[in-house]
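User: Can you write out an input/output pair for a complex, sequences first and structure second?

Assistant: Here is one pair. Inputs:
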Amino acid sequence: MFNTNKEDLNETQIKIMEAAMAEFLEKGFSGARMQNIADNAGMNKALLHYYYRNKESLFKQVFRDVLIDMFSMLTDIIETEIDFESKLNKLVKSYMNYLIEHRQFPLFLLNEIYRNPEIVDQVLRESDVSETWDKFYNELCQSQKNGDVIELNPAHIIVTIVSLVVFPVAASNVITRFADISQSEYYEFLQERIDIIPEFLIKALLKK
Amino acid sequence: MFNTNKEDLNETQIKIMEAAMAEFLEKGFSGARMQNIADNAGMNKALLHYYYRNKESLFKQVFRDVLIDMFSMLTDIIETEIDFESKLNKLVKSYMNYLIEHRQFPLFLLNEIYRNPEIVDQVLRESDVSETWDKFYNELCQSQKNGDVIELNPAHIIVTIVSLVVFPVAASNVITRFADISQSEYYEFLQERIDIIPEFLIKALLKK
DNA sequence: GTCTATAGCGGGATAGAC
DNA sequence: GTCTATCCCGCTATAGAC
């Protein structure tokens, strides 16, 4: 489906992609420097341009990888056939764990999509993200008809779930600063939330 | 309290600050261009450097203004003496309305603090933000002792509230893209959430 | 396929006239 | 206080040797 399969990359390209991802995640598109990427990949700037025509096309590759990686796991969970409450639980737990391991992803995406919204269209068009959402949306409607979930515009329910899961990760640097705690303390805090969020959601969204 | 009072600025400085805020909010520090700021302020680049030594000091001024503006309203609400549930309601409603009018603020802050965490320390030290948080935190603990609010690390409760309020605004561009809806449709959606969020919080957090 | 060298320009900053 | 002109570095990108 995607023309960029990790298996098709040679060793040099892999080194480039790793260094590029680190740099773009850290600094964003406009803050990133091709020189830094070359240095961290252990090679020359010219070689970056040999494999990827320019900064923008290298960035697009990184952006696409991040977006696809973030959504592929989501898709897997949503595709599995279990009852809604279990799925909600699994979704939150798996996704929190994933985000804790990839803390830079949410803010990176929020930011780059804000600066350059067209980029999503290009990547989104070739992905199956919207199908995945549709499936979850429909399951949610079904659960509402069954009387399991409260009556409320499903979009609000989805935004609520995503807010609770994604924001604490996207804002981790801000929160650690304001609350004056260490990264590892905040890590513990996020671990606790893995159990707390589903409890909240069940209390607030499910009819019992 | 702050050495930068809006009243102390002359007309030129006001024009600079307006143009600078627009540019920095739109592009971030590294993407912003002094030339654009000068153009939009209707003046010359050199004049920017006359009033603000360099790009960084101009940025810091903008950053400080945004941070202080965002927290001053919060402080006002938290200072008022009403019961916890009413305060929670008021907090969410006022803040959602504020954020809808200043949609760029959350992502701007998340992002710039991530890129350059030290900047907060400099601005935070001279503000009363931490006192405000402490007050809210203490009130929350008191409500827990009274048996109004469920037993749970207050930090989790605060992060939950902030997530629900801030994320939908910070992610507005992403959400409108993915859900394929217009800005004005999303504006309606956010208006709806002003009533939905308190309902959610009361169900999830209060003992009834 | 990988390197060195360099073109070329964009952008922050400053000198100096008025 | 505001302008024009210009410096000069940093960065993307390319030419060309090996």
